[in-house]
Amino acid sequence: MEQYFIIDFDSTFTQVEALDELARISLKNHPDREAIYKQIEDLTNASMEGRLSFTESLQARVKLLCANRDHLKMLITHLKKKVSTSFSRNTMFFKNHQDEVLIVSGGFKEFIIPVVTEYHIKKENIYANTFVFDEDGNIVGYDKENPLSQEGGKVKLLKELNLPGDIYGIGDGYSDFQLKESGMIKKFFAFTENIERKSVAEKADHITPSFDEFLYINKLPRAISYPKNRIKCLIVGQVDEEALAQMKREGYNLRHRDNIEEKYLDEAGVLLCDEANLPKPEQLQNAGRLKVIGCFGRVGRKLAEAACEKGIIIFDDPKANPRNVDFIPRRVLAFMNEGKTHMSCNFPDLQPPRINNAHRLIHIHKNVPGILAQINEVFANHNINIVGEFLVTNPQIGYVITDVNTGYDTQVLSQLKAIEETIKFRLLY
Length: 429
Prior knowledge:
This protein is α/β, with parallel strands linked by helices. It has three domains: 3-217, Rossmann fold, CATH 3.40.50; 231-338, NAD(P)-binding Rossmann-like Domain (Rossmann fold, 3-Layer(aba) Sandwich), CATH 3.40.50; 359-427, 2-Layer Sandwich (Alpha-Beta Plaits), CATH 3.30.70.260. It is built from 18 helices and 17 strands. The protein has helices at 9-13, 18-26, 33-48, 54-65, 69-80, 85-88, 91-96, 109-116, 153-161, 174-181, 198-201, 211-217, 241-249, 262-265, 301-309, 324-338, 371-381, 410-417; strands at 3-7, 101-108, 126-129, 131-133, 139-142, 166-171, 187-191, 206-208, 232-236, 253-257, 270-274, 292-296, 313-317, 359-366, 386-393, 397-404, 422-427. A hairpin with a 3-residue loop joins strand 15 and strand 16 (397-404). Helix 5 (69-80) runs parallel beside helix 8 (109-116). Pathway: Amino-acid biosynthesis; L-serine biosynthesis; L-serine from 3-phospho-D-glycerate: step 3/3. Keywords: Amino-acid biosynthesis, Hydrolase, Magnesium, Metal-binding, Serine biosynthesis. InterPro entries: ACT-like_dom_sf, ACT_dom, AHAS_small-like_ACT, HAD-like_SerB, HAD-like_sf, HAD_sf.
């Protein structure tokens, strides 16, 4: 059976509400701009939360805009920089599912088409409103015959399209939920990467904090193997807000605790802490999910070696060094995203280049002879071609990154994990 993916634009495909942003451009020099901005934002939220009909909200917002074609050009440039992070990294999904992905929005084609077509989404699969202009290029209204300009417009449109197969809806607003309420779609996913509207989220089949989560839940190809919102990042001690903001922007599930307790450490994938709140070496014994520690301060040799034996990488920096606000999260993310170990205090140094259209697998093992041969034998037995492979060692561990250019079944992963002397194995993307 065919599948279709109905994706909203404002606050879903992009991080912002486009009409709100257009107002900030067009009313930049207006003496009452702040009051009008607030009025437009209130109208947007009232509609998205189901407190005001979409028709009433749209009419009022367009009337307040005072915008023209030149303002739209500026808006498009702005929106291209505001595509939601998890959508922008999954360009290949859109390229491979061009016939199944539809953008359905109460926004306007004039700014939606230039943004989403850069992600391989077909122009004919973009359904939205259209502005009406006067002879000087000023926006004076919109096509009121378009079903998407009316209350329940997305439901009306899908009835007209009559798509054969299962339909999945992804959005942040009440008009997206109406598709589920009408019975037109199989499941509604409330997208909360940019904003969470409680009245919408509580009615959804599933809350998806990122597009990666949606793809993961539905077993669809994705840029990263495991959604970052499912990885807990434990925060203990004095960690700068800017460092936390970097982790949050990446989508990690941040958890603040006053001290390190094993029950929290055991479920964390990332630990950010200061020098006064480092884990004890014995606390790492059951931290099976922990992949990386970022310390705002220095780490002693005993902890560094204990972490290395468990396949846990550590990045540290002198406590007073002003660069660590940016340095520590950047190194942590470079490891989590690409497997880079540069500047670690306990892992051998590796900075592999990213290879496009490849899958990256990480294998950490005790530094004994013959492991690389066993890894390659697994790939050879399954006729998997290696396009890049990197091995570095220190006295404790061997660290291997392998890039392969074909798909694989779960048996391959199981066999790699089962190699004797394996400490940790991870599928990166």
